[in-house]
Amino acid sequence: MKKIIPRFWLQSQFYWGLCLCLTSLLVSCSYNEIPIGSNSLNTRYTEEQPALSGNGRFLAFVSNRSSTQQLLLYDLELQQLIPTPRLNRRNAIAESPSLSYSGRYIVYISSDRGRPVVALYDRAVGQSQILTPNYNGWVRNPSVSPDGRYVVFETTIRGQWDIEVLDRGPNIELDIPNGAPVSAPPQ
C-alpha cells in the first residue's frame, strides 16, 4: 500500500531546510567568526592595551585567551605569536606593556603579593625581573626607552601621582645595536 504524504508537509520541510541553510550561511559570515587559532592576532577573546615596538615589527598586548589575563607578543612581519617563556606567571596579572626599539625588552605592570610592581622581561634570556620590589607607593603606566636603559612610570610615593625615571645603569646590554641612534640619519 502506497503512503501519501500531504503536500503542505513537504513544503514546510523544504522551507525549514532552506531556513537552516540560510542561517548557517549567515552565521559563518558573521564578524564573530574570526579565526581563533593560537597564532592569529584578533580572536573572539578580549585583547587590549596594545604597545608597538620602535621598529614597528612587534606588538605586545593583553589577552584573556586562556581564561586568564596574560601578556602576549605578536610578530607583525611573520603574523604569529612569539613565545615568551616565563613571562606570564600563574595567579599574577600582567598589564600596561611597553616595548623597547626591537622588542627585546618588555616593561609591564605585574602583581606581587597583591600590589602592582613594574617588571621587565628580557626576551634574549627569557627572564623577568621586578624593578620595584620594595617600593612604598603604587605604580602604573610604565614605559621603556628605545634602548632599554630607562624605565619611566607613574607613582604615588609622595601621596600624589608623580613620574619617576629609573636608570637601569650603564652596564646593561642595550637593545639598539652598537648604541646607534633610533632617529633617522640627517639628510
Would you write up a description of this structure?
- With 187 residues, the chain is mainly beta.
- It has a single domain (38-169), classed as 6 Propeller (Neuraminidase).
- It has one helix and eleven strands; from the N terminus they run αβββββββββββ.
- The chain has one helix at residues 7-28; strands at residues 47-52, 58-63, 70-75, 80-82, 94-99, 105-112, 115-122, 127-130, 139-144, 150-155, 162-167.
- The strands form three sheets. It has a four-stranded antiparallel sheet, with no helix packed on it.
- Strand 9 and strand 10 form a beta hairpin.
- The longest helix is centred in the N-terminal third of the chain and has 22 residues, at 7-28.
- The N and C termini lie far apart (95 Å).
- The model is unreliable at 21-37 (pLDDT under 50).
Brief digest:
With 187 residues, the protein is mainly beta. The protein has one helix at residues 7-28, and strands at residues 47-52, 58-63, 70-75, 80-82, 94-99, 105-112, 115-122, 127-130, 139-144, 150-155, 162-167.
